[in-house]
Every structure is written in C-alpha cells, then in structure tokens.
Design goal:
The chain is of the alpha/beta class. It has a domain at 52-63 and 95-263: Rossmann fold. 30% of the residues lie in helices and 31% in strands. Helix 3 (121-130) crosses helix 4 and helix 5 (165-177) packs parallel to helix 6. The chain is globular and about 50 Å long.
Length: 264
C-alpha cells in the first residue's frame, strides 16, 4: 500500500519486505534554549521501526513522546541527528519535498479529529486527495472508498456535528488512508472515545497493520492499544527507557509494568 510510490529527486522508495527496517532514528536530540540554558526534549535517541509494525510510544507528559512522534512524522526537525523513511533522510529534504512526503507517504490521526466543521465527511476526506493533485471527481471517488473501508459508506453527506465521536474519528482515519500511505501516525486516537468505540478504532488500525502492511505508530496511554501493539517504547526525560514486545508487558487495570517498573 503505497510503499513503492515516493520519489524525491531520483530517490525511489522501493518495496520494503515485512521485517525490514522501514523508519529509523539516529542520534536524535531536540534542544530548546530556555533562559540561557539548554533543555533537551529528546536526548540522543536511536530507534528502528519495521515495515508493517504496530508500534506504541508511551511516556509521561513532558517526556519527549510527542517530539519523537513529530520527528518521525516529518513535522519537526531535530537539533542533532536525523530520521529516515526508507532511503530518504528527512533532514536533507527541502520544505517542498517534506510536504510531498507528508502528503503522499504518511497519514495522520489526531485525538481531536481536526475535521472541518462546514464540510461533509466525503469532502473532509477528499480534500487530502485534492492536495495530491487529483481532480475533484477522482478525489470524491477515492474518499467514498476510504469511508466505506471504515464502515461509513452510509454517512458520506453528514457533517461532523451530525456524527458521533467514534464516527468522527473514523472519518479522520479515512482521511489518513485516502492517499494510500505506507505509514499511519496516530496521536492518542482513542483518547476522546468510550470503551467500545475505542476498541473499534484499535481493530481498524490493527487490521491495517496485519492485512495491508501499513506501519502504524501511535502515541498512547490506552492499555488496550498497548496490548495490540507489536512493541511498546517507553520515553522518559527525552530518552528511550525501554523497548519491549507487548507480550512482555504486565498490564493490569490502571497499571503497566515496564522494565520492572510500575507505570500508572
């Protein structure tokens, strides 16, 4: 799904087999100056993410979780080090090239949905396809297919205020999928949802990973999402504290044991 389509100045992202490194972070630091002192949001982080993996990033507020998420998603530049998607080193790309990568290669899902209130579900989703250069007619067709894939084929003409929270999040997922990205970045995608709706969203993301080979990276505290992940990364004080398979985690209601430590 989209793995062979990104070309930036003669650099072609070719087919990447399941199990091969697809996203990599090398020595990444993000440093802010605060009252003359350096504050490290990220401190020399190294990370590899595999093609088709379902990866969750967790950590307390201020840990650097969101900063790492944004570096992986080409939304933020590191102060030191670099991130790569396939053979593309993001720090070497121009603003125009980064915009191309974000539009064609990565689908974003946010906790707050970020839908345009005045547009229908169909138009919210088709807008992303139009930004790729497609015609309005082709974009509407692609949007309809994407909405049907998340079970909203009967809600194409409904505006966000006519949809439940779970339905709005599914519109956001359809918008993320419409350009057939190879990577889905989901920032607390179940944070505003009830239990049953949250589980439905998790099932959709898991299906994309397992059945379609999409690489899913989430920032989350949702225990249900952690259980469905292939690996869970815990970030603390700007550094990777632990990386574990989900089956190595001891998850109980309200508490997760990571690396022998209880995280609430």
């Amino acid at each position: 799904m989209g793995v062979d389509k990104v070309k930036v100045e003669d650099k072609q992202v070719g087919q990447v087999a399941l199990g091969e490194v697809f996203i990599s972070v090398h020595g990444v630091s993000k440093i802010y100056s605060l009252r003359g002192e350096d504050v490290y949001a990220l401190d020399n982080v190294d990370l590899t993410i595999y093609r088709g993996e379902y990866l969750s990033i967790m950590g307390p507020s201020g840990s650097g979780k969101s900063t790492l998420f944004n570096v992986i998603g080409a939304l933020d530049h590191p102060t030191k080090g670099y991130a790569e998607i396939g053979p593309l080193r993001l720090t070497e790309l121009s603003s125009r090239q980064l915009a191309y990568v974000r539009c064609n290669y990565i689908g974003y899902i946010f906790q707050s949905y970020n839908l345009i209130p005045s547009l229908t579900a169909l138009k919210n989703v088709s807008l992303s396809h139009i930004l790729m250069g497609a015609t309005p007619e082709d974009s509407d067709d692609a949007a309809a297919r994407s909405l049907k894939s998340v079970g909203l084929g009967h809600r194409l003409d409904h505006r966000p205020d006519e949809l439940s929270g779970g339905q709005q999040q599914r519109v956001a997922i359809a918008r993320a999928l419409v350009n057939e990205p190879s990577i889905i970045l989901a920032d607390e995608p179940t944070g505003n949802l009830d239990l049953d709706t949250g589980e439905e969203i998790i099932r959709i993301l898991k299906r994309l990973s397992v059945e379609e080979g999409v690489t899913v990276v989430t920032a989350t505290h949702d225990h249900k999402m952690l259980k469905q992940s292939d690996r869970v990364i815990n970030i603390r004080d700007g550094q990777v504290e632990s990386i574990q398979r989900s089956d190595e985690l001891k998850i109980e209601e309200g508490t997760i044991e990571i690396g022998g430590k209880a995280v609430h």
